[in-house]
Amino acid sequence: MPELPEVQALVDFLAARLLGDEPRVVTGVELASIAVLKTYAPPPDALVGLPVSSVRRHGKFLDLECEGVHLVFHLARAGWLRWSDTLPEKPVRPGKSPLALRVRFDDGSGFDLTEAGTKKSLAVYVVEDPGAVPRVASLGPDPLADDFTLEAFTDLLTRKRAQIKGVLRDQGVIAGIGNAYSDEILHVAKLSPFTLTTSLDEETIARLYAAMRETLTGAVDAASGRPAAQLKDAKRAGMRVHGRTGEACPECGDVVREVSFADSSLQYCATCQTGGHPLADRRMSRLLK
């Protein structure tokens, strides 16, 4: 799933191609999957003929504004944006392909929104105000915003009793962090993913805050300037523990371990994060009974 650093890189990638002294004008919005469109007014055609005014990010949501009409989309777990300097002239047709939506611009360029797999979660909204999208309206603060200070972070943690990994991933608490970067942040902060927020002292909270800002800023910098097609591989290559089960921890050399859930998993280093004690993996425990 694209998280804050990848979505920000996509924002920068699109802004570089669509904005400027003569912004690109939308010439077509074609749906290949009606299921991805979550709004009905304004219709997608309301974007046609309008120049691009801005490209922004709200957490993991990307917002393409065209003179007051916003195309807002969330790529979910298996969605992606594919850019083309020259799109095929043939209109898209509904079908079973990964293609969900195509946006065309006046120079022949454009992008496709695609989604692999059978579980479809990619969501597209055409609205006059991004705040009309319920999941955007309920987002917590951006972790890289200037006004998201250590004091603000501390206040959030002290008001919510829960496991720290779940808090970092809760979009209503902090916007933009998902499964991968929460693993990375907790590894840098040397904290177990199951640590309760109520057990964190001031020093530990400060260490976690620094780890969050450092990890996300580093990932944004690493993704900056990369073509959209390279962002997935760049994300994987930059991971310290996430997705690296069985490999050596880059910090201490211990093996990276995993805890599996029904539809996801987390990775961590026992030496760095849990005092050398492996965490219980409920799925593996059931298999061993």
From TrEMBL:
Protein name (record): Putative DNA glycosylase
The record ties this protein, via InterPro entries, to:
FPG_cat (IPR012319), FPG_N (IPR035937), H2TH_FPG (IPR015886), Ribosomal_uS13-like_H2TH (IPR010979), Znf_DNA_glyclase/AP_lyase (IPR000214), Znf_FPG/IleRS (IPR010663)
GO biological process entries: base-excision repair
Q: Does the keyword Nucleotide-binding apply?
A: no
Q: Which family does it belong to?
A: Belongs to the FPG family.
Which SUPFAM superfamilies does the UniProt record give?
Glucocorticoid receptor-like (DNA-binding domain) (SSF57716), N-terminal domain of MutM-like DNA repair proteins (SSF81624), S13-like H2TH domain (SSF46946)
Alphabetically ordered keywords of this record: DNA damage, DNA repair, DNA-binding, Glycosidase, Hydrolase, Lyase, Metal-binding, Multifunctional enzyme, Zinc, Zinc-finger
Span of the secretion signal?
A: none
Which segments constitute the Formamidopyrimidine-DNA glycosylase catalytic domain? 2-112
**Which prosthetic group or cofactor does it need?**
Zn(2+)
Instruction: Supply the source organism's classification.
Output: Bacteria, Bacillati, Actinomycetota, Actinomycetes, Micrococcales
At the top level of its lineage, which domain of life is listed? Bacteria
Could you confirm whether the keyword DNA-binding appears in this record? yes
UniProt domain FPG-type: residue ranges: 240-274
Q: Which organism is it from?
A: Mobilicoccus pelagius NBRC 104925
* Catalysed conversion reaction: Hydrolysis of DNA containing ring-opened 7-methylguanine residues, releasing 2,6-diamino-4-hydroxy-5-(N-methyl)formamidopyrimidine
MF (Gene Ontology): 8-oxo-7,8-dihydroguanine DNA N-glycosylase activity; damaged DNA binding; DNA-(apurinic or apyrimidinic site) endonuclease activity; lyase activity; zinc ion binding
